[in-house]
Design brief:
The protein has about 200 residues and is α+β, with helices and mostly antiparallel strands. It has a domain of about 130 residues. Helices cover about 25% and strands about 25% of the residues. The chain is built from 5 helices and 9 strands.
Amino acid sequence: MSNHLRVLAESDAAASLAELRVVLGPEFELIVEEGDDQGWSQLLLRHKDAEEIALIERDPVKPGELGELELDELTHEMEHSRPTRAVEWLKHYFSHVKMVYSMQPMSGADVNDGWSAIGRVQAYLWKKFGGILQADNEGFTNREGQHILWQFHGKQEGELEVAVMNDAGQWTTHMIDMADLQQVEAFQRGEVPVQRA
C-alpha cells in the first residue's frame, strides 16, 4: 500500500492545521510528526483509536528540496504515458507548482471511513491552494479535476470523467467507461470517443 496521492499546489502558503482538523471532524486526529503547527512538513492522520490512516508530507518545490525531486520523478514516470499532449501540458504546468502535498495511505485507510478522511484532506488542500491532483498508477488531473493522463495498469472498471486537449489548447471533457477498451484507447490518443447509438 505504498501508492501516494498528491496535490501539486500553486501556492506555498502553509496549510492551517486548525482548518484541516475542522474539515476532518472529531473522529480523526492529525499529529505533527515534523515541524510545528505553523510550519509542519509531516503529519500523521489517524483514527481516534490511534490506527494510522496516512502519512501526509508538505514538500516545497525549490532547488535541492524534496518537492523538486518528486516533480522530477513524476516527469520521468510519465514519459511514455498518453495522451502525449497531456504529458507536454503537465511538463509546462510543473513550472507553476510551489508545493507538493503527498499522502501515503496506511492500514487504517481501509477501515471506518479512512479513505474518506484522506479524500477530505486532499479536497481541502486542492480547493485552498489550487493545483492539480495525482495518484500513483492512475495518473493526473487538470486544474478542474478531470483526469488527463492514463497511468492505470491492467483492467479497470467504472466511469471516469476525463478531458483531452484540442488544437486550440482547450480541454474537452467527457465520461468514459474504463472497461471499454475502445473508449480508453481513444482517450489515450487524445480523442473524444464516438458515442454509440
